[in-house]
Amino acid sequence: MVTSKFPKDFLWGGAVAANQCEGAYDVDGKGLSPVDILPDVHHGRWEALMNPTEALEKDYGFYPSHESIDFYHHYKEDLALMAEMGFKTFRTSICWARIFPNGDETEPNEAGLKFYDDLFNECQRLGMEPLVTIQHFDTPVALMTNYGGWKNRKLIDFYLNYCEVVFNRYKDTVKYWLTFNEINMILHIPFFGGGLDVSKEEHPEQVKYQSAHHQLVASAMATKLGHEINPDFQIGCMLAAGATYPNTCAPEDVWKALEADREGYFFIDVQARGYYPSYSKRFFKENNIELEIAEGDLDVLKENTVDFISFSYYSSRLTSADEKINSKTEGNVFASLKNPYLKASEWGWQIDPLGLRTTMNQIYDRYQKPLFVVENGLGAKDTVESDGSIIDDYRIDYLREHVREMGEAIEDGVECLGYTTWGCIDLVSAGSGEMSKRYGFIYVDRDNDGQGTLARSKKKSFDWYKQVISTNGADLA
């Protein structure tokens, strides 16, 4: 009998985000979220992401998020399917604009709170621990238009008011919390990451890092607040991760790769260690970035580090010190050369299971805090056969090898709390707004134009993951 490399209380599950699955964008008093003003990739999504103020003034006709997969009305059916797979945990997010439609109200929207009451209670009834992201690319649009987004320090107070409400409301149903999803993405997609429009800013990097400071302070203060409300809360940070390899063994390439990894680690250094890393001083100086740090900020950061570190992992990256040969892979927001030793997905994301083990070891070596792999998966086009079956062996192959390498990392000594595959049910892609880029074990009948019955059906990977969970990762066949 094959023994499992995974702890007996390992939290197997899946992950979604409110803004990519709930739909019901104007139901029960909800305000506008960033995705609600974006078209799909074929009608200018990336241009809108980079110029959100202009996007607000346009009518694109079709907005993928407005209905999405209508999880808002189908959540009981969807959670039942996840429970059938044996999920121990379900990661989702709270939509800030459902609780505070404009983000700055003093009193919350009761209808929004009630929805998450029902959602988390249903999770608990089915034996699934909710893993809840407080801000998953979901700063209310009104906070951008009225305050300029996270560049305005006032957002710390608005965020903490929101946190206090949800911590108190769900203190008995939610144990695991993440303060910000992929916090380092504020540097790459500032509208998603920070409700920012930097298209007209004279010094975009200054704005992004000042906004990041506000988020880091807010995260620390939320961690303090959460532990005061319920000492049993486990509060984590979240990084868009992936080890960066040097293109050659030239020392210049090795240094370039180290710098690339530091760009993301910068955020977790603050959240997990409690202070700005020494290398940030030179970076700020050379890039003319001067942070406005209020009295007490550094103490707050030092005294309120996270309990665990969560991260997304889809692929590793490759870089060169020679800018002439640096290029971007299709479909990936991180600059990367094409690695000749790796295959790539249909969207250009390079597939590197061993890179997950490498990444886990690097993060754990750096921080010695428990890890949680909260996003990992393969976006691919699925075909529904004439008999209704969906044979997604490519997804099974991807996940099998990543789970295997995650197990190896645990054998290496890495402490890991759990694993939630991304998009466990098909949802709208954050980057492209498409439905055709599917990640789920559960197929949703909806196409890129919003057509379809929204009927749910199981893919072949559904039964495979059910087996993985039932054997605690011992049987990956």
Automatic annotation (TrEMBL):
Keywords: Glycosidase, Hydrolase
GO MF annotation list: 6-phospho-beta-glucosidase activity
Keyword Hydrolase: yes
Keyword presence, Hydrolase: yes
Pfam families, sorted: Glyco_hydro_1
Positions of the catalytic residues: 375
Domain of life: Bacteria
Gene Ontology biological-process entries: carbohydrate catabolic process
Assigned GO CC terms: cytosol
EC number in record: 3.2.1.86
Family: Belongs to the glycosyl hydrolase 1 family.
NCBIfam families: PRK09589.1, PRK09593.1, PRK09852.1
PANTHER family: 6-PHOSPHO-BETA-GLUCOSIDASE, GLYCOSYL HYDROLASE
Protein name: 6-phospho-beta-glucosidase
Organism: Vagococcus allomyrinae
